[in-house]
């Protein structure tokens, strides 16, 4: 049995989930700032309360909302964990984002199916996404 909670994961849980997902893990100070500046967080936990996955929404709370850090432990990738997280995130967005708001996400190739399943469409060729890494 898995349970979703509208809660912010601990910094350690966040760092570990990012590492397990093959992403960089921010130092404690940056991770704490990122988490505390989230508009919304959801965690997915097993019966033992161990974190299985998480997702966040960031943005300005009015015009732009971005779904980030939808992270699932590798052992749970082939379960409904991603869907459970997305349903909670979308419920938050449908209740809090104005109809005119832009709801965005950036995904790796394997994650595209999850977002498309929940109604997201690729923006190319109408728009181009860009990134700047320092």
Descriptive notes:
- The protein contains 4 helices and 5 strands.
- It has 134 residues and is of the alpha+beta class.
- The chain has a 5-stranded mixed β-sheet with strand order 1-2-3-4-5.
- Helix 1 crosses helix 2 (28-36).
Class from helix and strand fractions:
alpha+beta
Give me the count of strands. 5
User: What's the main sheet like?
Assistant: 5 strands, mixed
Number of helices: 4
> Nearest-angstrom radius of gyration?
15 Å
Label this structure with key terms.
alpha+beta; five-stranded mixed β-sheet; globular
List strands and helices in order, with pairings.
Layout: E1 3-5, H1 11-20, H2 28-36, E2 40-45, E3 51-59, E4 64-72, H3 81-96, E5 102-105, H4 112-117
Parallel strand pairs: 4-5
Antiparallel strand pairs: 1-2, 2-3, 3-4
Helix pairs in contact: 1-2
Write a compact overview of the structure shown.
The protein is of the alpha+beta class and 134 residues long. It has helices at residues 11-20, 28-36, 81-96, 112-117, and strands spanning 3-5, 40-45, 51-59, 64-72, 102-105.
